[in-house]
Amino acid sequence: MNYIKKLSRFIVPYKRYAILNIICNVFYALFSTLAMVSLMPMINVLFGESEKVYAKPAYNGVKDIKDYAENYINYVVTSTTETDGPERALLYMIILIIGLFLLKNLFNYLALFFITFLRNGVLRDIRDEIYHKVVTLPISYYSEKKKGDIIARISGDVSMVKNSMLSVLELIVKEPLTIIFAIVAMFMISVKLTIFVFIFIPIAGFIISRIGKSLKRKSDKVQREQGVFLSTLEETLSGLKVIKGFNAENRFYKNFQTSTNRFYNFSNTLMNRQNLASPTSEFLGIATIAALLWYGGKMVMVDQTLSGGAFIGYMALAYQILTPAKAISKASYQVKTGNAAAERILEIIETTSALDDKSDALTKDEFTSDISLNNVFFKYEDDYVLKNFSVKVPKGKSVALVGQSGSGKSTIANLVTRFYDVNDGSISIDGIDIKNLTKNSLRGLMGLVTQDSILFNDTVANNLRIGKEDATEEEIIEALKIANAWEFVKDLPNGIDTNIGDSGGKLSGGQKQRLSIARAVLKNPPIMILDEATSALDTESERLVQDALEKMMKNRTSIVIAHRLSTIQNADLIVVMQKGEIAEKGTHNELLAKNGVYKKLVEMQSFE
Fold first, then answer.
1. CB atoms within 10 A of CB 217
2. pTM for this structure?
3. Is pLDDT of 64 > 70?
4. I want to staple 35 with a disulfide (CB 3.0 to 4.6 A). Which of 88, 91, 100, 196 is the partner?
């Protein structure tokens, strides 16, 4: 139950509901016991065994409450029988029983009513916390994690913890109190018979605990496998064109089927172990009742130390213990399965990010001088992809990074935007190390256009407003015109309010890229980072996109990562990269004159 302590901060905002639930559960347990005890006077009236009490008893404090309650009920029964007959006395007893059962069920409903707000509130807050963590953790975290596993944790695992938390509250309050009140009443009726009952309880408890020991491990397997098949599903939906294009449907289906078969087997084992709890505890309870019938019946019929009404009331109380005992055993299993789910949730929540803002991080609202990369070393895993890399990008200038794939060009974009931190060296803006700036203000100075046009299943307008939330319709249209996108957006069914489908699936590659550029234009940042923004386009789309980029880059500081050299001839500085180091740098004409690496790259590509 260690995870309850760690997740308790999610319960604190709803503590008033927890307190109200506990109060209602106390009354529920009390009235549950009194409802069973009230069967005794009814049976005594029914069989004429009530003790005759003609004088109204006096109340002498809590110590004598049992005798007072018994004598007062006998007094009411005696006086009512004398004046109105035994039927009226029986009717009063029935009304008493109905009233007590009504109160018991009313408080049970109220307890569940209040706990609902706590359960669903905790569920919402944990999901919000995980989602916030998901969007704030560095990109490097997800290079080793499967998306489907994250989805499984934020959906299934959180629901399991919610149910487990409810079980804990029942385990701590409702069911134990019901048992305690019932046992107190049983001791009041017969100490000897109650001691006899307690011989059987440890035996039953030992057997039940043996069943539940492996549940946490089995539950963990089920949850992990759920993450695997959700990952397969997510990858299938993302790569459906490739799967169909290569006739790989059967291969992916077999992978998915293998995972669901494992999930089927793990779930069967877990559920069968859980299902064993209820019948086992019920059988052990009935065995206890059977022993009671033998021993208690002997006290009534042979020893005559217990009345028939008291014995039946005692049996009702003993049976009443069975239901909460079963609930406790079931709840304890849920706690074990919840423990496994909580560990997976806490793994995300407690993950620390090396990219978190410093406590004294600065907020920077404007760009005045330059971006400087100073002796930067960086590696994703073991081998350095950048070595001793230095370059300065003055304000208003454009610097292009070129080189073969794997030379470290896109890594520069990842480091400048602080998606990753350098291993050695530094990156500064206006002389301030970007590690000393808040990530929000740093990225607020930058616009990013990537090779993959990342768009969302929403309207054109809402996709652009990611760059500027309060943008007007006129500003959106102006940004679309600069990006050469208005020509196709105006012809869409609902213009800028047209939904573009999942990942912009209703648009062509060139159209998606121009929307990405329009989004960056609308943000209007002083620094623009273009990461191979035209490499995936056909010639016509590239011409339109390149024209849009040139419009956008006017009077703006730009870092352009290019595969096609035709797009960067006008850059103020071209940096040629080779295996993470600078091979050459200069303008287009200067580099051609050097007759080195750049010229070879140019000769491999045809200029238009």
1. 11
2. 0.72
3. no
4. 100
Q: Is residue 191 helix, strand or coil? A: helix
| Interval 92-137: pLDDT, tens | 778 888 998 999 999 999 998 998 888 888 888 888 888 888 888 8
Q: Could you give the 3-state DSSP secondary structure of residue 253?
A: helix
Label residue 16 by pLDDT band (50, 70, 90). very high
Q: Does 414 score more than 50 pLDDT?
A: yes
Q: How far is CA 302 from CA 117, 287, 305, 342, in A?
A: 54, 22, 8, 56
Query: Across the chain, which distance is largest between two alpha carbons, in Å?
Result: 125
**For 52, left (φ over 0), alpha (ψ -120 to 50), or beta?**
beta
d(CA 50, CA 54): 12
Q: In Å, how far are 43, 318, 329 from 307, measured between CA atoms?
A: 10, 16, 33
Q: Write the secondary structure of 464-489 as one string of H (helix), E (strand) and C (coil).
A: HCCCCCCCCHHHHHHHHHHCCCHHHH
End-to-end alpha-carbon separation of the chain, Å? 69
Tell me the domains of the chain and their CATH numbers.
2-349 (1.20.1560.10), 370-604 (3.40.50.300)
Q: Which residue has the tokens 């639930």?
A: 21
Mean pLDDT score, 32-48: 73
Question: Taking the C-alpha atoms of 28, 47, 55 and 100 in order, what is their torsion angle to the nearest 10 degrees?
Answer: 10
The H or E element spanning position 255 is helix 249-275
